[in-house]
Sequence to fold (261 residues):
Amino acid sequence: MRDSLRAADAPVEGGPGKLVLSLESTNAISGKQCSSLPGFTPGPILLFGAPGVGKGTQAKALMSAWGIPQISTGDLLRANVSQGTNLGKQAKAVLDRGELVSDELVNEMVAERLTRPDTASGYILDGYPRTLGQAAWVDVHVSGKGSSALPIIAVSIEVGYNQLLRRITGRRSCPVCKSIYNIYLQPPKVDELCDLDGTPLVRRSDDTEEVFEERMRAYQAQTAPVVEHYRALGRFRQVNGEQPIEQVTADVIEAVRRLRS
Fold:
């Protein structure tokens, strides 16, 4: 597979394989886009995208641009369990039985998180809602509430299947200095060796084509219908995620601006 992917198309300098965005470049982009919008309130934002599209990178850019938090349901679950909250104790009991935490319990955690002051101007929901059932709950209990009273809007970062496959299966890291590479898009100078210390690079056990295909099937089955739900409501924009990271950031910010105009 590696040879066939190498032959598909060569990486472009500064293109989608460059997965590092400096704080300075993020601030420059966000400042330029938002300078003409005094008092702009982003409100609640859903950031969609298949595994490997770079949602985390873009969420950090939006946080820097507008000073709003990123709310991950995975982080919420771990925090509640580790802090021993009432919701965390309920979740731990479920997890200890080897079961999945219910939508109702996740919904309660999200609702509690959104009562905190840092969400007043908006927030980015990460990894939620994943299903139409969760989206229905969000529309009734979350959207249009809070000090901003703005409805939830959705932006999807779109990247082609083959490009995503390269991003996921090509990831390598140095176990010593933690440098990150991609053998297809941002390869080391010497095959499979770290540029800085010559240590053999390692691959995460789940960065395989089989796991990627399974995650993609789950995304298409569960989350793709949620995207169509917000598209039908007229609160959805799509952004090309195969551009340089800085341009993707600019396009995401512009999509939010247009949805709020």
User: Anything to note?
Assistant: The CA atoms of residues 148 and 200 lie 51 Å apart.
